[in-house]
Every structure is written in C-alpha cells, then in structure tokens.
Specification:
alpha+beta; 286 residues; homotetramer
Chain lengths: 286, 286, 286, 286
C-alpha cells in the first residue's frame, strides 16, 4: 500500500505544480487573451418561426437599404421549428418585403404556404443549398456589381481585408449552366449541381451572374453579403496598384472571421447599425 | 381477327409504357422547366393614350431617381391609339416632368399638341427611330457616364452580366455627325442617319455623347437604360482585372434576356421596385 | 428709257427667281437648322446687385448639393451694377450660405461691405481673375477629386464628352506656387500670376490642389464645374480602357459648347433641374 | 560738432530712406502675407470633460454621416480634466452614439466609469497611443476602403492633394500582428507595439485591416480621417493615369497642413460644415 500511497501523493504534487505553472506562467485570459478566447455566438438567433419571419423581413430591408440588392436577388432563413422548410419572400423586391409576403418553402422548392402568391423562380437555389448544408441556416443569392469581374476573369476573389475574412477558403466560380436556360437557375437538377459545386465553401460566384452565400445565421449572412461586395472592390483597387498583394493567409482569415467578424460583440454591433439605418430610412419598420 | 386484336393490345400496352415513361422519367414542366417555358409578356403595357402618358411620366421620374438621367436626356413612348405619334416631355429635366408637360409628336418630329411649350431639340432622334422600327414602342436617349468610354475607344461594349443580356447583338458606335453641328442631332436628315445606323440593334452609342436604346415597352426600356449603365461599369472593372474575359455568348445572352430580364415575373418586380423608390422620394408621385 | 426699264424688270425677275430658289431649295431654318441657328443666351442673368446676390447664393447651394464643393471652395459673381466689384460669401461652407453672408469685394480683394465677417483667404484668386478677364463675370475655385490626377501627372485633361466641350482650348496646369506658402494662394502677386497663367482659357488646374473656372454667367459656371468633374472621371475611365482615345476636336467641342451646352434651351433646363434639386433637399431655399 | 551733426543728419536721412523703401517696396504683411502669418489654432477645443464628451459624440456622428465609419471603427478624445484618461463610446456603431454611451477609460484600457456597458475590444489601441503621445489628444481607428490597397501592396500612401497634406511624413504600414489573433488588436502588448510603430507619425496603416490616426484635437482628427480617405482614392486614380506623379514635397505638405488645413479659418469652416450636415440628417442632434 505504501507504493500506492506514494504514487497518489506524487500525482497530487505534480498536479499542484502544473496548476501553479498554469496560473503564473501562461498569460491569463483576462489580461492578454480575454477577447480572443471570448468568442461568443450572436444572440440574434430566432427561436420560433415567427421570429425567423421577422428577421428575414429585416434582412431583406437591410440588404436593400445598404444597396446590396436592387429589385433582383433574395435571402432565406431555415425554419427554426422545422429544419426541412425555410422562409423566403414571394417574388417581390427586397425593399418592399413585409411579413405578409413571406412564404414557407420545402427543401425541394415546393411552396408549403397555402397561397396564390408567386415565388421567386430561383428559390430552387436556396432549397438545394439548405438541403445539402445542414450546418447552415441562411442563404443569399444576389448580383453585387463588384463581384462579377471575378466571375468572368481568371482572377480569384480572395480576402484582402479582415472584413472579407469569411472568404478564407477561397471562392469557386460556377460555370455549368443548363444549356439554353439563359443562366436562370430554376430546375431541381441545376439547383443540386449548384449545391454540389458550393460543397463546404461559404461563397460561390456564378459566372456572369452573381453569387450565393451561406451562413449559420442571418446576421452573419448579411455581414457576408455586404463585406463580400466591399472586399471585391478593395481587391480590384489593390490589383490596380500592384499585382503583388499580401492577402490574408487562410489561417489568419479563418481566425479573423471567428474573433473579429462573427463574434457576438462586433456582429451584434453591425446588426444594430444596419437595423438603425433601416429604421431611419423606412418608416414602416420603426 | 386474333392477330388484329393482338396488334391492338400490343399498341395499347406500348402506349401505356410510353406514357408511364414520360410521366416518371422525363422531368415534368411543372417541376423542372416551369419558368423556362413560362416566358410571359409584362402586364405593364398601356392600352390608351392616357395610360401611355402616365407611364412615360413615371419612366422619366424613375430614370431621374435612379441617376441615369440628369437635366439632359429624354424618353418617349409610342401612342397606343395612333402608332404614327409618340409622347415625350417638353424641354424639361426628367426629374420635373408631370403629365401636363407631355407633348404628342409625329414621326417627323412635328408637334401635334396645340401648345407654346418648347420641345427637346433632339426629339428628332425619337421620331426617326420610332418611324424606322415599327417593332419597337419606346426610345431612350441619354448620357450615362459609364458608357462614354466605350464610345471613344475601340473597345466594344458587350454583355458581361445577365442583366446586360439585352446587348446580345453587340453595340455599334455612331460617328457620322453633321459637320459643324457640335454633336447636336436636330436635323431630320441626321435623325434618319441615326436610325439607319441603329438598324435592328437595341442599343447604339454616339461617339463622345451618349446612347440611344429601343424597346418593345417602357419597363423593358427602363431596365435597359439602368442595366446598360451597370454592365458598362462592370465590363470596365473586369477589363481592369484581365483582358481575357468570358462574355455571355450571343445565344446565351439572348435567352437570358427572354427568360430572366424581360420575362414578366422579374420585369414586373423591377418596375414595382423602381416605382416604389419614386414614390418614396417624390411625394407628388404617391 | 427702254433699256433702263428692261434692266429694271430683269433685276426684279432675277430677284424673284433667287427668292423662290431660297424658299424652295435651301432648307428652311424651321425644318433643318432651327436649333443650330438659334443659339440663344440664357435668360438667367441678373440685372441688379440684389439679383446677383440671390443667384450666387443659389450657385453655392447647387454646388454643395451636387457634391462639387464640400466645406472648401467658393464661387463669385461680378456686380451687375459695378463691374469693379464682385459678390462672394464670407468664410463659410457653400452648403450654409445665405444672402446675409454675401460680401461685396473689389478687384484688389478688399472688402467693400462694412462688416466684421471674415472673407475667404483665396478671394484674391477671384479678384485677380475678374480684373484680368472683363469678358467673364463668374469664377469658381474648388477641389473636385476627379480633376486632381490630371494636375499631378503629365496626362492633359481634354474633352471626351459633349458636356466637357467647354474644355475645347485644353486645360493648363498651374505650378508656380509661392515657395513656403503651402499651396495657399493669398497674396495679390500670386493672384495676378494665376490670372496671367489662366490667360484666355476657361479652366486651369492647380497642381495638387484643384481648379479655377471662369464663365460669362453663373449658369454656365455651375454647368462647367459639374461637368468638369464628370469629364475628368470619364476621361480617366476611357484611359483605363485604351490610351487611344478619340477626343472631341477643338472645333467640334467649341461648337458643341455653343449649341448644346451653353445654349439657352439646354442651359436653362439644367439650371432649372439643379434649382429643383436644391429646393427638394434644402427647405430654407423653397 | 559739424561732423557729428552731419553724421546725425545722414543717419536720419538714411533711416527715412530705409523706412520709405520698406513702406513702398517690400510688400506689407496686411496685403501679401496676412493669412500666411495668421496661423491660428481652432477655437473648437473643449475645456471640460462635459464639453469633450459632447464633442466626441459629434465626431462619431460626423464620421458616420460622411461615410468614413460604418458599424466598425471608433474615435476617442483625451479628458481635458485628466490627461490620464480618455472618452470613447461603449461598443456601439458611431451612428448611434449619444452622450450616455461615452465611457471614461484609462491609459491601460481599464474602464473608469462605473458601468456594465461593454467597451470596444480595440480601445487598447487608443489607450496605448494616447499614453505614448502626450502631444496628441484624439485618436481614430477605422477601415476606410480606399486606404486598404496601400496596406497590402508596396505602394506607399503619399500626399497628392493639399487636403492630404497631413501625410507629409509618409505613412508606415504595421504588419506585426499577434500570431493567431486574427488581426484583432486587444492585448496590451500589441497595443504598445502599435504605438511604438506609430512613433511620431500622424497616420499608420494596419495591413489588411485599416488605419490609426492621431491629432491635436478632434476637428483636426475628423478632417484627417475624411481627407485620408479622399487622398487615397485620388492617389489611386492618379496612379492609373501615370506612375510618374508629382506628390507634394514634405516641406510643401507640412506648410499646407499648417496654413490651409489645420489653420482655424478653414478648419472651423470644415467643422461647421460637417456639423451642419449632421444636424440636417440626424434630428436628435439639432
């Protein structure tokens, strides 16, 4: 038994030494790494279908108000009460969307809501992506001008600023359109092809057309749509200065996304800002 | 008779097999090709002179509100009650046009309306084009900044995005100005020369001056004017990235125009959007 | 007497033939050359000091509202009642100028108005130019961003669009600053040097600083300031497409200025447009 | 005595000649050098903590209203009653900041105000710079799009226009981020490293992230932030015209900063302008 007791005491002693070492030598979270470690999830996540509908209306208005979407383009959110359906506006410009315009749609693109309202033809993109990506809950499809050049040339879109950090994986360009379909994506087959091409990326460009973005939640998605546009413009301007650009490295960008873009403290500040601007410009949203 | 009956039954059986094959194997229009086949004409087509006047007022306001026209430039619509006249504002900035400012003008540029109001000098362009193009009912003449570079260099304007798909035929550049006329087009002879140069195209540039656009109806025309500007800017930015651009092919672009730009579902959404923005910014249009 | 009578009748007959020829063969002004011949002066020319003060207030507001001037830059008009003085705001941003802020200043830059209000330091530019150019009645000094690149490189600013036609003479670049004066022009000597450098041009750039513009009247001046900015941007974009640009020829540009930019019909339309926008955005100007 | 009297009269005569020479030949300060000599400090300097809080609220609103800051970025002012603390908003977009959102923070980044409100993570930058630079009283941290290209290429940002004159020392680029920190600066160590890198400069860029600016007072700081953005854009456009640019020389730029940008007459005009625009757009600030 003495040997056992000896071993026991040795373990306790070593544990104390390790704990003291941790305490005094490793920098404490509160001094040097407080925020780095404090990666929090945004609180702006709807729990009910009703909240999700309200949030997707706000996302439509934000994207219109910030000039990311005009009459075309759309945004969707997975139903928190049923992961096999999502909410999206009827065929209407994002500027005009109210909660009465929101349809419930299933992951094959069929309209669940009993209504005569017409859906977007390209809802099929949202359905296919939400089906293929159970890890994601929000999809954007739009045509911001600044991203198109990166879809029609062989210059890849890359993160050049920390607000473009969510592009850390790179951005593939889809160019496998249905022949004769005029670049309009409205068959289930092409929707699935788009989703396969997206794979595990967060953003894909569509050649000569626009882009799709996915995110865990709508605040992330809106931030991604706005800063995708900005990163593309900044990258273009940088390339006009020099072809020798120091992009964010993949690791650096991934970390920047986690601590500086999608972390609750800055992300909730952004969401609050965009909402404040909507309320200022759109009296019916106050 | 047995052989006949046998043949009959065989035919019935084969027919059933073919029908079942069609039903289960070939994708049904409603699932996969619903929108591709459903190319519809916009409902926003005026039936009367009164409606045409109201619509051309709205088109003026939209083009001012979207920043496509400033004090200069103008838009016209053929009279639905008389294809030999058209409606256009008196010499006034599009921002300020009301229905009391609309003149009826014939296809030689003579003012039909009994009035002392002064017309635009360049109405002659609209008259000549509407005379030469019975297939078209609306004309735009303006000077969006982003198109000028393509009129003074030998770089052709081409469709680089699906919203520029209406440029599928290419864009000729007019440079046959009346010597000594200071680029102002106000003789009948030059109007006819412009119309001949336009030929069957939808858009022509005027060197160092601007562009003319034609369309079947005003919603198409307004969409063309707005997205002509945008396509030009995106093409310029693309060319700054690389001289090796994958443009829309002519077939692809023509199809995109039909199903994704001028099809009723998206076109009416655009028109609704532009009208909503006019109503927001111009109290007298509510 | 018969010979005389014969001659007389012959002359009458020939006169009638010539008149008929003119009537039927030469195109009448009303059909083909009406506007080309009808170069009219704008009616918006103040006759009294009071009207000039009101107009220079409006010009300040227009240039602020159109984004040509921010806090810096200024505009002046010669006193219609005394060609040896001019009107200009006290040191105040153009956005904020009212008629109570207008000073009368003589052509040496001395303040005629009895006041303790402080003038712009650079009023000396306006004084020197109005003294050197009795043919001109309005001066602009400002710093539109798009013109600066043409002042710091050896690429000359040239008319690339008909609204830039007033640049038909070319645009000299001043770079003879008082050593140690920090590019601020506030000595009478430098004012005179600037005016000599301007000579008979309508526009001069100041290296790394901005530009001066002169015009016969304020509507011309405001049009010149706005379209100088636009022409510079369009020229820059054109040069990004190609170094081989077809500029307006000097003759073509001069004529375009006369018939299409400074002619009463379009110029008054522009002025009306800019005033309408001021009234929309600035309640105190209604 | 005659010789003495002769000398005396000669001296008097020479003195009179010299005085007359000075009077007539050398330009008097009041005519030629009045403004050059009259470099005055702005009056807009808060004397009390209360005034400083009001001014930093206004600076937040100006920077939001002028589009320099969106949801991200922040501004601070040293406490006039205690140089060892400064005022800055809690984690909130500059657009929304009111005086109730201002925290007092010490030069180690600790929150002095008794509150549960959360501060910006990057307050550490402001704390470190204000500690290292007792000559400066205001700090800006933001991400204007036009400066990023100069942070990711080896093209240095330089003064190309007199409103960019405050860049006379050049602009160093920081690229010594904490590994694994995702470009977020929130450790005291990195704050100090940033401050050391800034040294005696007025502006530093952060690679792929943004910039820090320091100034003696808030009006200077706001002018610097706005014109840093503008100078970067103008420099980019200039470089697109030609790689051979005539920048402001360091001496010329320093002098231009003193007499034309940070001198009371123009600086107070700018501040008044930005305040007027805030009051127009933000009813709660009237």
């Amino acid at each position: 038994m003495r040997t056992q007791e000896y071993h026991f005491r040795l373990i306790v002693l070593l544990s104390v030494i390790v704990m003291l070492f941790c305490w005094f030598v490793i920098p404490s979270p509160s001094s040097s790494q407080a925020l780095m470690m404090g990666v929090e999830q945004t609180k702006n996540i709807p729990k009910t279908a009703k909240e999700a509908i309200e949030q997707v209306v706000m996302a439509n208005r934000i994207l219109a108000n910030e000039g990311v979407l005009d009459a075309l383009g759309h945004v969707s959110i997975r139903n928190p009460e049923n992961p096999k359906t999502f909410f999206q506006a009827r065929s209407l410009s994002p500027l005009e969307v109210t909660k009465d315009d929101i349809l419930e749609i299933d992951l094959d693109g069929a309209i669940v809501t009993k209504t005569t309202m017409r859906p977007y033809g390209e809802r099929i993109i949202h359905a296919a992506i939400l089906k293929a990506r159970p890890d994601m809950n929000a999809v954007f499809h739009g045509h911001p001008a600044s991203v198109i050049p990166f879809s029609v040339t062989n210059v890849p879109l890359r993160p050049v600023t920390h607000v473009g950090s969510f592009l850390y994986q790179g951005v593939p360009v889809y160019d496998d359109y249905e022949p004769g379909a005029g670049m309009l994506i409205n068959t289930k087959q092409e929707g699935e092809r788009i989703a396969r091409h997206l794979g595990q990326y967060r953003v894909q460009l569509l050649r000569g057309h626009g882009c799709n973005i996915v995110a865990e939640n709508l605040p992330q998605l809106v931030a991604s749509a706005i800063y995708l546009r900005d990163n593309a413009l900044i990258q273009l301007q940088s390339l006009m200065l020099s072809r020798d650009i120091k992009y964010l490295s993949p690791d650096e960008a991934k970390r920047a996304m986690e601590v500086a873009l999608f972390n609750a403290l800055p992300l909730d500040r952004m969401w609050g800002y965009w909402v404040a601007r909507v309320k200022k410009n759109m009296p019916d949203m106050r």
